[in-house]
Every structure is written in C-alpha cells, then in structure tokens.
Design brief:
The protein is an alpha/beta fold and 239 residues long. The protein has a single domain (11-162, 204-238), classed as Rossmann fold, CATH 3.40.50. It has helices at 11-33, 37-50, 66-70, 86-98, 137-147, 165-187, 192-202, 206-216, and strands at residues 56-60, 78-83, 105-109, 122-128, 148-159, 218-226, 231-238. The chain has a seven-stranded mixed β-sheet, sandwiched between helices. Helix 5 (137-147) links the parallel strand 4 (122-128) and strand 5 (148-159).
Length: 239
C-alpha cells in the first residue's frame, strides 16, 4: 500500500504537546469558532450510528470526549475513548463524571496507530476531526479496521473541501485569517490554530479518502457532505 500520505516524523509528538497546551480552552474555542455547528455534525454521526445499534463503540482521537458522550444516545453496552493527549482526556473524564456516564464511557491514553485492543472487539469505530492528525493515516485506519468485528462499521467526521466558489472564498478567509487570530488570542498558543487549516488542506478528501477506506478492506463506503461541504461524514463496513 502506498505511503503517500505519511507525514514527517515527529508529528505525533507535536500534536500531543499542542493539544495538551490548548486543552483548557479547547471546548470553548471549538463551539465558539464553529458557531455551534460542530454539535449538529456530531448529532448526524450519532443518527447514523443508531441505525446499527452497536453494543461496543471505540472513539479514536476522542479528545475531550464530545463524540463519545454524544454516542451514549445509541444505548451501547460500553464506549471506549482513546487519545494521545492526557490533558484533553482529563477534561473529558470530568465531563463524563458530571453527566454520570462513568459506568458507560471509559477513556485511556493510547496511540491511534497501535490500538491497545484485541482484533474483532468493537461494533463501531468512530473519529471526529482526529484522523487528519495521524502520523500515518493508512496505519491508523488499518488499526480501526482490525479492532472492528466482521460486519462492524467505521464512521469518520472530518473537515473537507468546499466546492461552491463563493462559499469556499468566505470559508477560506475565515479559516486562514479569523480563526487563527481568535484561536491564538484565546488559547495563548501561537501555532495551534494555524495548524488546523494547514492540516485540513493536506488531508486526502472525498474520493481520495474513500479510496483509503476501500484499500484497507472496508466496503459499502460512502461520503455525506455537511454544511456546503465544510465537513463530511465517511463510513464503511468491515467485511
């Protein structure tokens, strides 16, 4: 399989340190800068997941556990969230505790490209705005495939490329100028919110990402574009 989407060594550690640094302001900035649209996007993921009634769910790159918490609406038997940032997970655990979901959702530190779970364990594997941070995208997707049971489903929520020229121009101005400025002022981190648009631009979108899912072994792959294509939901089934 091609390693065309492998990025330079050291990305994993840079991402870990960056998210540890911005963790205290991450949730506020997420919801403020997206004007709350990210909440609706996660709800779309939950609606799709509910169709399968998954008993065991793995949320990769879970961050502060927003998607893991939302997936409780699927009424599974357990939800596991995994992330490389301890400080993001600490905030996620506090949110889970306040919602009295401790018995349902567990969070642990781990590497998305070497998942600490047995093969054929989960019915659903998800990731929201996390796979573009993988150091080796294909390896991370292969690991999600491995830990899914046969017939299990993968659902990925990720930013994508806007096709409409006018909306794309407005979106790029916001994404490249306004978002980094506000993000830097609020988070006090000089580069984190410049990293976001650059990571989106280099991510393999649309058919390129669907091809990676297919190469990994997923079938019935599809893409749902959201909010004019600002984000997309990708899904597929393990054979």
């Amino acid at each position: 399989m091609s390693n065309g989407h492998r990025v330079s060594p050291g990305k994993k550690e840079r991402v870990r340190h960056m998210f540890n640094d911005i963790a205290p302001r991450y949730d506020f900035l997420n919801h403020f800068l997206s004007m709350g649209i990210d909440i609706r996007w996660r709800r779309r993921v939950v609606n799709l997941a509910q169709e399968r009634k998954p008993a065991g769910i793995l949320d990769v790159a879970t961050g502060t556990a927003d998607l893991a918490i939302a997936l409780a609406a699927c009424h599974p038997e357990r939800i596991c969230g995994l992330d490389i940032s301890d400080k993001m997970l600490a905030i996620g655990r506090e949110k889970i505790r306040k919602k009295s979901l401790d018995q349902l959702i567990s969070l642990q530190t781990g590497d998305s490209e070497s998942l600490p779970f047995d093969s054929n364990t989960f019915d659903l594997a998800t990731a929201a705005f996390g796979v573009r941070n993988f150091e080796n995208l294909q390896q991370g997707i292969r690991e999600m495939y491995r830990v899914l049971k046969p017939g299990g489903q993968i659902i990925i929520l990720e930013f994508s490329r806007v096709r409409n020229p006018l909306l794309r121009a407005l979106y790029h101005a916001y994404f490249r100028i306004i978002l980094p400025l506000i993000g830097r002022l609020v988070s006090k981190h000089a580069s984190a919110y410049h990293y976001l648009p650059s990571s989106v631009e280099t991510f393999p979108h649309d058919q390129a990402f669907l091809a990676i899912l297919t190469e990994t072994g997923f079938e019935n792959t599809c893409q749902q574009r959201l909010t004019g294509g600002i984000a997309s939901i990708y899904s597929g089934d393990k054979k």
